[in-house]
């Protein structure tokens, strides 16, 4: 299926590994022109090198902390300066912080999730709206989490910030739809980490590596997933790239579960 992404300009916030890196590489394979933003320059360079090996059209690495004020504006400005437009924005960045029940949490704990979860999305979306409104053309994908619908005592601040991201996305879809802008949110379930983690967990629980991450969350957190495995980074990227494409031209304001059939 042709997703009609050739020469479309995409900015991925949080692209140095995991879902963000998989999304950037898939966009490049589809012919998009991709800007990648992340804090870790060495990891970002490795992703860019991989994209160039697959003949990606001129990827633009942007080393920055997306949580810092003005960083998103800089990323958007640099992207438009290089490519002349901005057609799609993906916001993956949202580092996990301290976990504790509400009565043990501090204002600093809450600020971590607000600043590094919600405000990254706010600043990136706000910056992207200017060129998208001028073009009357744009697609935004943000990242929430399945856990905002399956509350756990230690994740009060995390899930509150993720629920706010989903709400923000719906507001953008409603407010800017007449400007030709779509906005959708994904809610990932269990995400595979890396090969080393899978091998270690497989040995710990005596299960195959492909089941290891699921076994961990099942035993430690009581999570049940119908497919009995974690999602691969590429499986989340597939949905993100579809939502950015013109094949999803009538999809907006949605929060889409990508969770392998997780019980909420």
Keywords:
2 domains; alpha/beta; 7 strands; 264 residues; 8 helices; single chain; 7-stranded parallel sheet; Rossmann fold
Task: Give a description of the structure.
The structure is a single chain. With 264 residues, the protein is of the alpha/beta class. The chain has eight helices and seven strands. A seven-stranded parallel β-sheet has the order 3-2-1-4-5-6-7, sandwiched between helices. Strand 5, helix 5 and strand 6 form a beta-alpha-beta unit. The relative contact order is 0.14. The mean pLDDT is 94.
Low-confidence residue ranges: none
The total tally of domains equals: 2
**CATH architectural category of the largest domain:** 3-Layer(aba) Sandwich
Overall pLDDT score: 94
Shape designation: globular
Write the layout of secondary structure elements.
Elements: E1 9-13, H1 18-29, E2 33-38, H2 41-53, E3 60-63, H3 71-83, E4 88-91, H4 107-135, E5 138-143, H5 156-176, E6 181-188, H6 195-205, H7 209-221, H8 233-244, E7 255-258
Parallel strand pairs: 1-2, 1-4, 2-3, 4-5, 5-6, 6-7
Helix pairs in contact: 1-2, 1-8, 3-4, 4-5, 6-7
């Amino acid at each position: 299926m042709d997703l009609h992404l050739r020469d479309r300009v995409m900015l991925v916030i949080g692209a140095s590994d995991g879902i963000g890196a998989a999304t950037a590489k898939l966009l490049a394979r589809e012919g998009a022109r991709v800007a990648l933003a992340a804090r870790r320059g060495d990891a970002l360079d490795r992703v860019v090198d991989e994209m160039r090996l697959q003949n990606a059209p001129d990827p633009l690495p942007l080393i920055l902390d997306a949580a810092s004020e003005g960083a998103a504006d800089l990323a958007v400005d640099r992207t438009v300066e290089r490519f002349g437009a901005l057609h799609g924005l993906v916001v993956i960045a949202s580092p996990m912080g301290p976990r504790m029940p509400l009565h043990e949490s501090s204002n600093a704990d809450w600020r971590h999730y607000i600043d590094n979860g919600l405000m990254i999305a706010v600043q990136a979306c706000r910056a992207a709206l200017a060129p998208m409104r001028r073009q009357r053309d744009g697609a935004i994908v943000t990242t929430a989490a399945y856990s905002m619908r399956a509350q756990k005592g230690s994740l009060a601040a995390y899930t509150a910030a993720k629920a706010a991201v989903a709400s923000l996305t719906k507001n953008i879809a409603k407010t800017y739809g007449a400007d030709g802008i779509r906005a959708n949110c994904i809610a990932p379930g269990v995400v595979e980490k890396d090969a080393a983690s899978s091998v270690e967990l497989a040995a710990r629980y005596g299960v195959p590596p492909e089941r290891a991450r699921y076994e961990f969350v099942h035993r430690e957190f009581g999570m049940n997933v119908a497919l009995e495995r974690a999602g691969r980074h590429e499986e989340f990227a597939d949905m993100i790239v579809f939502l950015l494409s013109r094949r999803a031209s009538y999809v907006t304001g949605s929060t889409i579960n990508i969770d392998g059939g997780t019980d909420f």
